[in-house]
Design a protein that fits this description.
The protein is built from eight helices and nine strands. By secondary structure, the chain is α/β, with parallel strands linked by helices. α1 packs parallel to α2 and α5 crosses α6. It has a nine-stranded mixed sheet, with helices on one face. The protein has a single domain, classed as TIM Barrel (Alpha-Beta Barrel).
């Protein structure tokens, strides 16, 4: 039964990373209004959705993000994922909007300035009473830097329970075994598809253009026929799942990765 969804507020993002699965760009777009989003979230929450994660693009580039967070407070668990470049400027507004959790992304663990900034921001959010953590992007070609970054985060009080290890998709994809090595051989959090591509019966992804998929990375998407829970189920009905490209892990990788806990 579905109980979690992610919603891309926009595909606008000042970074415009070449590897972005959403092809986000500085002059991106959205078709969502705050009224539509808040009404949709109220409806799906009344029918069992317990958590909504807001992403993009960059969600802080969506003009109505403060109002949306305020209007959905107490309805569902609301998390938001940001690259953090605008976080300092929006800090007070974010604290007042009271999201249930903020994830700050590290896309380049080899860049000391980025790692240092995210560590500072996560600590600042925590000091203001906002639960926070890190989304750490891991490339097969950058395992050493990712491992060093993980150690830096932990030495700064950001434990493995607050780090989401995300494998690069489409290319340069690490195996489950390599992801475990980055985490130091201990239990860690990652995507449910770390071991094999497949849909989760609990999760769905909703795009900035109101298309629905079983996964944020798949190319198999369908428009929402209506902005409610019934529309969400209709869009997902018999919807396939096109793999995003990485080679399935070997049996050895799967065996080595049984110890970590995988979470979407």
């Amino acid at each position: 039964m579905l109980d979690r969804v992610s919603i891309e507020l926009t595909n606008a993002c000042s970074k415009g990373c070449a590897f972005c699965y959403n092809e986000s760009r500085p002059h991106g777009a959205t078709v969502w209004t705050v009224d539509e989003l808040s009404g949709f979230i109220e409806d799906i929450a009344a029918r069992g959705i317990q958590a909504v994660s807001f992403g993009g693009g960059e969600p802080l580039d969506y003009p109505g993000w403060v109002e949306l967070l305020c209007r959905t407070q107490g309805i569902v668990f609301r998390s938001i994922t940001t690259h953090g470049l605008h976080l300092d400027r929006h800090l007070q507004a974010l604290v007042k909007a009271r999201p249930d959790k903020v994830h700050v992304s590290i896309h380049h663990p080899d860049r000391l300035a980025e790692v240092s900034r995210v560590v500072r921001q996560v600590k600042t959010l925590q000091a203001h009473g906002v639960a926070s953590g890190v989304n750490l992007l891991v490339r097969r070609s950058g395992l050493l830097h990712a491992r060093q970054c993980s150690s830096t985060l932990q030495s700064n009080g950001i434990g493995l329970d607050r780090i989401m290890f995300l494998p690069m998709r489409g290319h340069d994809t690490p195996s489950a075994r390599e992801m475990g090595q980055v985490a130091g051989g201990r239990r860690f959090q990652s995507m449910t598809c770390l071991l094999a591509c497949g849909q989760s019966p609990r999760f769905a992804s909703i795009g900035w253009d109101r298309t629905v998929a079983w996964c944020s990375y798949t190319g198999s998407r369908r428009p929402l026929p209506s902005l409610d829970y019934a529309g969400l189920l209709a869009a997902l009905n018999d919807l396939g799942l096109i793999p995003c490209g990485p080679i399935p892990p070997s049996a050895e990788d799967a065996e080595d990765a049984e110890e970590p806990s995988q979470k979407a």
